[in-house]
Specification:
By secondary structure, the protein is mainly beta. The protein has helices at residues 88-91, 197-202; strands at residues 8-10, 13-15, 19-27, 30-40, 49-55, 65-73, 76-87, 102-117, 120-136, 143-155, 158-163, 172-177, 183-189, 215-218.
Amino acid sequence: MLPVPAAVQFGQVSGSLWQGQIQQLQIQQVPFSDLRWQLNPWSLLMLRADITVTAGAIHQENQPYLSAHIQLKPTEIRVTNGLLKLPVATLLPLLQLPVPVQATGELVLDINQLQVKDQVCASLIGNASWLDAKLQPPVGSWLDLQHFHANLSCENQQPVLITDPANILALDVRATVNAAGKLQVSGTLKPAAELPAEVHQAMQFVGAPDAEGRYRLNF
């Protein structure tokens, strides 16, 4: 009975409004298996819907996982204790990267609190990590980049990700999603000297370095 966005596809649905299951759910080509929800009926008396959702298995590698407590109001969505794990390889087709690369590892979003009010980001407290990060540049072999970490927040009613530059690429970027849903990234990177020569050669696809050897990212 509810309208479904074109980017969302789902399989067999069972259960009731209060507790149910979707065997397979796909959002923007990212598949989630065994999505389950539980709605607290008493919350409806306070003109809101308190829902707990889970999908996938947290210990299953290379498979999406989701868990969160969601509170829905007519003009507001609150998410607490949210955890989202996604294989990086499944996200690459959704990104418009300046350099053609392949990547593996796991993206982990740990959301302490998210508030979306009147369809804009009102509050966000959390962090993001790219764990077991591996990258294959346009030329050369796979590289072990270890881990990347970032903080999540809301600024000017938009979600913002700011990386911790203490990583092997000195990746120091700010990423946000604009009102049209487009990802915007700006910042710098400076590959460590001990990285293989093909990494430094691949920087030609990014541009020329500044006086301190940093390459600017802007896309």
